[in-house]
């Protein structure tokens, strides 16, 4: 389903999500702040012409510029408004009827060198119905008057934005006696006449008068809340004003969550190069596949016509070459990236705003929980946080985070605080997993570092190129990457202390603890010294990676939010491995982790701690204050969960294969959701099948999960080629990668200069 002209949809169609949230058909509407409205309308002149309904729209519109404005002044007269700070001028002109006076005013803007308004909003009819008691003669005169005004409006539309506001329906039961003649039947007749006459002579689509008909749909849902049956309630007027602001400002301000009326962004130089590269990869793979197929046919076993015996081919079918695997991977990746681009950069598919309800979040949570429990299997090993258990943990957390994002649950503070713990738990696993590996294996080689960095960053680097987004935009990957390097530096720097060395002399344990204390001190200093943090990450080339919107504040905020949890993961791994080495814990199948008494006490404390955190998070009143406490207290619920999951022997011996499957592709799921499940860079929802929300979610989810799984396979295949074990070959590949990023930087600089 093609998105089509989103401006036309914004002005003519949509539906309510809940009671007050308006959802235009096929696109997303941005909620403009006062500062944004001023920036858009700077040095602009806007005119509203019409009756009391247009006056209402005028007041709602200027309140977007200055919320302090009060609705006062002559109700049946002209009302001026001016914002001197932004040189914005908005006028309401009282012309309750479409007549000669209105025509004369409009005509004055078409003559000579008179300054024309940038935006003109016109509409009137109810006064004509009321004054002439709903007579047919009045309707006939209305048609004649509009016919005379239409060419003037079309002439103005060549240089200004001109909107004709259709008449909203009335709530006839509530109308006063003096307005009883204003019926919905009459209003429909007047609207039909206006639509038929306007633009009848205009063939140039750019010079058309835009018909603002969406107000009718909004009024149909809300007019019964009117105080007099004629005028819209304030919330509906505000929605109309916001639609008007989106129609004019989206193409100027280009908000991410305002896809209505935004043109498709032009391809950048880097995107064009990427397109050529993927095209060549696809062509190369097809050529190699055809060559191999022809060779296979030539060497295929054939039947000897004389003896009837099967002859074996002289040459066996060769294994897949490195070049073929490379081209095959890039071929698939190219097709997948085309889908990414079509979903979130081209105006091909529809996008809609998120709307949170408790049921839209909690019902899917219950559903996946039931599925997860259904697919329960025995683990291969029963150690604390074994591989299957950590995959399961990542899996269910990722599914909950996905539901959180698509349901828009960030607006509900208790859910937001619990999701923050899940993100912290990912980082906890980062600290636990990488510390355990370096501590046990003692492998600080370049190969290990490059493998981890490649697997973490490959997809994000490709998306930065294809989707024209900065690296920091995908904030979680930079976060995990930096923490991995911090863990590596902490353990690899002299003296290198590993388990094998520490077993020979207990003093090495104190040396490692001293390293961890130094790390904690550095974290504490940077978290309370924003200036020092920003200086470190403002140096080139770090600034190219961590800047977002021209500064590194967003990166500092993300890092600070979970600053201690990786350290907690490292410390937990150290304590656990020390206890394991001294055989102070029991990890046999079905055995509790400690003695029965200790296990019961720890389990009770863990459950109480887990619930206490949930109660605190649910009672949060202010997001800023809760975020300040989160880094210090999130570890409580994480450790409580780890102990609850591992102390009982039976619970530790089973896992959910359903959750574990998703856990293996959790990173790809987290990144891919930005563009092919959600839309507008996570601000909205991708709509492949409009009109069927549940079916749309099922289809888009199926494609999304398949793509994430395929990208995981591609990343694994390419990691073996790009990051070989042989050191000399690896060094050559690293030089090639350095050259690639140098070229990318040069093209990026050229791109930025052309934009400016």
UniProtKB/TrEMBL annotation:
Q: Which InterPro entries match?
A: Cas1_AcylTrans_dom, NXPE4_C
Keyword terms: Acyltransferase, Glycoprotein, Golgi apparatus, Membrane, Transferase, Transmembrane, Transmembrane helix
Where found, per UniProt?
Golgi apparatus membrane
Which residues fall in a coiled-coil region?
Answer: none
Citing just one GO molecular function, the answer is: N-acetylneuraminate 9-O-acetyltransferase activity
Q: What is its EC number?
A: 2.3.1.45
Q: Provide the GO biological process annotations.
A: carbohydrate metabolic process
User: For this UniProt entry, which segments traverse the membrane?
Assistant: 269-291, 325-343, 355-375, 396-417, 452-468, 474-494, 506-526, 561-579, 600-617, 659-679, 685-709, 730-748
What membrane topology does the UniProt entry give? Multi-pass membrane protein
Which reactions is this enzyme annotated as catalysing? a ganglioside GD3 (d18:1(4E)) + acetyl-CoA = a ganglioside Ac-O-7-GD3(d18:1(4E)) + CoA; CMP-N-acetyl-beta-neuraminate + acetyl-CoA = CMP-N-acetyl-9-O-acetyl-beta-neuraminate + CoA; CMP-N-acetyl-beta-neuraminate + acetyl-CoA = CMP-N-acetyl-7-O-acetyl-beta-neuraminate + CoA
Q: What is its main location?
A: Golgi
Report the GO terms under cellular component. Answer: Golgi membrane
Q: Which stretches make up the NXPE C-terminal domain? A: 22-92
The UniProt record lists the Cas1p 10 TM acyl transferase domain at 253-734
| Signal peptide from the UniProt entry | none
**Lineage top rank: taxon:** Eukaryota
**Any Pfam family matching the protein:** Cas1_AcylT
Q: Identify which top EC class this enzyme belongs to.
A: transferase
Q: Report the family membership.
A: Belongs to the PC-esterase family. CASD1 subfamily.
* Name of the protein described by the UniProt record: N-acetylneuraminate (7)9-O-acetyltransferase
Species: Acanthisitta chloris (rifleman)
């Amino acid at each position: 389903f093609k998105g089509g002209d989103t401006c036309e949809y914004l002005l003519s169609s949509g539906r309510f999500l809940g009671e007050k949230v308006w959802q235009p058909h096929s696109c997303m509407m941005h909620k403009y702040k006062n500062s944004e409205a001023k920036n858009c309308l700077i040095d602009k002149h806007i005119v509203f012409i019409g009756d009391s309904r247009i006056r209402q729209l005028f007041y709602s519109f200027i309140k977007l510029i200055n919320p302090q404005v009060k609705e006062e002044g002559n109700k049946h007269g002209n009302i001026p408004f001016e914002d001197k700070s932004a040189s914005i001028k908005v006028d309401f002109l009282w012309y309750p009827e479409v007549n000669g006076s209105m025509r004369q005013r409009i005509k004055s803007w078409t003559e000579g060198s008179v300054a024309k308004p940038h935006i003109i909003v016109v509409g009137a009819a109810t006064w004509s119905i009321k004054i002439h008691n709903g007579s047919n003669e009045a309707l006939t005169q209305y048609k004649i008057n509009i016919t005379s005004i239409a060419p003037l409006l079309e002439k103005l539309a060549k240089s200004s934005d001109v909107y004709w506001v259709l008449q909203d329906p009335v709530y006839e039961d509530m109308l006063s006696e003096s307005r009883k003649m204003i019926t919905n039947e009459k209003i429909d007749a007047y609207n039909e006449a206006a639509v038929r006459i306007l633009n009848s002579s205009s063939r140039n689509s750019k010079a058309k008068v835009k018909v603002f008909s969406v107000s009718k749909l909004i009024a149909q849902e809300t007019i019964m809340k009117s105080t007099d049956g004629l005028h819209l309630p304030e919330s509906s007027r505000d929605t109309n004003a916001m639609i008007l602001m989106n129609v004019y400002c989206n193409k100027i301000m280009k908000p991410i969550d305002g896809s209505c009326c935004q043109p498709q962004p032009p391809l950048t130089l880097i995107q064009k190069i990427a397109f050529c590269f993927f095209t060549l990869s696809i062509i190369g793979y097809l050529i190699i596949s055809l060559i191999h197929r022809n060779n296979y046919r030539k060497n295929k076993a054939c039947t000897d016509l004389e003896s009837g015996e099967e002859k074996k081919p002289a040459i066996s079918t060769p294994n897949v070459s490195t070049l073929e695997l490379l081209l095959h991977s890039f071929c698939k990746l190219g097709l997948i990236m085309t889908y990414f681009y079509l979903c979130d950069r081209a105006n091909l598919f529809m996008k809609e705003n998120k709307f949170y309800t408790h049921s839209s979040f909690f019902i899917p949570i219950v559903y996946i929980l039931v599925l997860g429990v259904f697919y329960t299997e025995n683990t291969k090993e029963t150690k604390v946080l074994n591989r299957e258990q950590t995959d399961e943990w990542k899996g269910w957390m990722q599914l909950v985070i996905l539901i959180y994002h698509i349901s828009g649950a960030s607006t509900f503070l208790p859910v937001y605080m619990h999701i923050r713990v899940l993100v912290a738990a990912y980082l906890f696993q980062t600290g636990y997993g990488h510390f355990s590996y370096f501590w046990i294996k003692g492998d600080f080689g370049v190969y290990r570092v490059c493998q981890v960095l490649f697997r973490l960053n490959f997809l994000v680097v490709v998306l930065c190129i294809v989707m024209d987004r900065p690296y920091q935009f995908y904030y979680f990957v930079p976060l995990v990457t930096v923490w991995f390097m911090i863990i590596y530096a902490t353990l690899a720097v002299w003296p290198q202390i590993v388990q094998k060395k520490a077993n020979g002399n207990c003093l090495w344990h104190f040396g490692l603890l001293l390293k961890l204390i130094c790390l904690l001190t550095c974290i504490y200093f940077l978290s309370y010294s924003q200036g020092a943090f920003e200086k470190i990450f403002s140096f080139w080339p770090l600034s190219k990676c961590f800047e977002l919107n021209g500064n590194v504040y967003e990166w500092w905020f993300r890092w600070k939010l979970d600053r201690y949890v990786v350290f907690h993961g490292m410390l937990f791994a150290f304590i656990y491995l020390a206890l394991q080495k001294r055989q102070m814990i029991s990890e046999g199948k079905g055995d509790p982790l400690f003695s029965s008494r200790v296990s019961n006490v720890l389990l009770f404390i863990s459950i109480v701690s887990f619930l206490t955190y949930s109660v605190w998070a649910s009672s949060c009143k202010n997001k800023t204050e809760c975020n300040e406490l989160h880094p210090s207290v999130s570890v409580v619920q994480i450790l409580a969960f780890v102990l609850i999951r591992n102390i009982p022997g039976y619970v530790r011996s089973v896992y959910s294969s359903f959750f574990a499957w998703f856990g293996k592709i959790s990173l790809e799921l987290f990144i891919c959701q930005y563009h092919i499940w959600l839309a507008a860079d996570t601000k909205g929802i991708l709509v492949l099948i409009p009109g069927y929300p549940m079916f749309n979610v099922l289809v888009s989810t199926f494609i999304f999960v398949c793509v994430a799984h395929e990208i995981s396979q591609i990343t694994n295949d390419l990691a073996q080629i790009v990051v070989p074990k042989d050191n000399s070959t690896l060094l050559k590949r690293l030089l090639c990668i350095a050259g690639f990023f140098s070229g990318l930087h040069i093209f990026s600089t050229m791109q930025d200069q052309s934009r400016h």
